[in-house]
């Protein structure tokens, strides 16, 4: 359990980089929930929903550092400085991130900044978006018959067209693409250019664990149409590989998930 003593003037606080999971508060770890409940300052990204935010004490200061493809509330250097500044002022800071802090969350950069400033930092793992999307869509990212290798790729990475994606997907492999909705057409074209068959199986998992979750299946050549015709919006992941042919009826999976409530 998290037991923080009241901070004293001149004492150094702490920074906890906490994975908030895919969005459903029931998928938080116990450690994450306890830290949120004791936070003095909550620095959160845009994927953290109001139910999780409401777990923080009423007097906790909430600071949004939400990022989108076209707009950043704060630059990363500014976020790093904010965490350090608040901790050096003696406060217990929870940096709350969707999914896991170290998977496309820049948690490594923030932890480095804290260590360099002499600020105690803790990293609390969370259920990643890929894990949630796979499990809740009943798509096994690994499967004894289909895949023993999983790759995670950022769909908005710099130099997308110049990178070599050959071998990331294909026989015995699963490819999970984060942040790929806006670049679905380029991703599809790039993978086919690098050797993946146009009829490779794909699935798009939108809003995993959240109300309105959808699982859309098809083939690689049709990926842009899947995204456009269904008006897919973030948060969403693209999963490519034979494992996407697995899984039960999406409606039944959603009913099972809603039955927990």
* CATH structural fold name of the largest domain: Methyltransferase, Cobalt-precorrin-4 Transmethylase, Domain 2
Tell me the span between the first and last alpha carbons.
26 Å
Total helices: the number is 8
Rg calc: 20 Å
Mean pLDDT across residues: 89
What's the number of domains?
2
Superfamily (CATH H level) name of the largest domain: Tetrapyrrole methylase, C-terminal domain
List keywords for this structure.
261 residues; alpha/beta; Cobalt-precorrin-4 Transmethylase, domain 1; five-stranded mixed beta sheet; disordered N terminus
Question: Explain this structure to me?
Answer:
- It is a single chain.
- By secondary structure, the protein is of the alpha/beta class.
- It has two domains: 14-127, 3-Layer(aba) Sandwich (Cobalt-precorrin-4 Transmethylase, domain 1), CATH 3.40.1010; 130-255, Tetrapyrrole methylase, C-terminal domain (Methyltransferase, Cobalt-precorrin-4 Transmethylase, Domain 2), CATH 3.30.950.
- Helix content is 26%, strand content 21%.
- It has helices at residues 30-37, 50-53, 76-88, 107-116, 129-136, 184-193, 223-229, 250-258; strands spanning 14-19, 41-44, 61-64, 92-97, 121-124, 147-154, 172-178, 201-206, 214-219, 236-240.
- The strands form two sheets. It has a five-stranded parallel β-sheet with strand order 3-2-4-1-5, sandwiched between helices. A five-stranded mixed β-sheet has the order 6-7-10-8-9, sandwiched between helices.
- A hairpin with a 7-residue loop joins β8 and β9 (214-219).
- α3 (76-88) packs across α4.
- The longest helix is centred in the first third of the chain and has 13 residues, at 76-88.
- The protein is elongated and about 60 Å long.
- The two termini are 26 Å apart.
- Mean pLDDT is 89; it is low at 1-9.
């Amino acid at each position: 359990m998290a037991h923080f003593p009241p901070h004293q003037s001149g004492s150094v606080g702490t920074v906890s980089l906490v994975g908030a999971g895919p969005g459903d508060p029931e998928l938080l770890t116990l450690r994450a929930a306890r830290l949120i409940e004791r936070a003095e300052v909550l620095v959160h990204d845009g994927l953290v929903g109001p139910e999780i935010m409401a777990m923080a004490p009423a007097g906790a200061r909430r600071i949004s550092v939400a990022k989108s493809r076209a707009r950043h509330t704060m630059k990363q250097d500014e976020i790093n400085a904010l965490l350090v500044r608040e901790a050096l002022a003696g406060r217990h800071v929870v940096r709350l991130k969707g999914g896991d802090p170290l998977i496309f969350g820049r948690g490594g950069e923030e932890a480095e900044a804290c260590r360099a400033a002499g600020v105690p930092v803790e990293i609390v793992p969370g259920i990643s978006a890929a894990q949630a999307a796979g499990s809740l869509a009943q798509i096994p990212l690994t499967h004894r018959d289909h895949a023993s290798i999983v790759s995670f790729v950022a769909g908005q990475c710099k130099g997308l067209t110049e990178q070599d994606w050959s071998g990331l997907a294909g026989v015995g492999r699963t490819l999970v693409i984060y942040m790929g909705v806006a670049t679905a057409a380029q991703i599809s074209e790039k993978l086919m250019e690098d050797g993946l068959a146009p009829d490779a199986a794909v699935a798009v998992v939108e809003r995993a664990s959240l109300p309105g979750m959808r699982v859309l299946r098809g083939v690689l050549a049709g990926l842009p149409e899947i995204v456009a015709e269904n008006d897919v919006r973030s948060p969403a992941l693209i999963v490519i590989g034979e494992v996407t042919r697995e899984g039960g009826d999406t409606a039944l999976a959603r009913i099972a998930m809603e039955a927990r409530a």
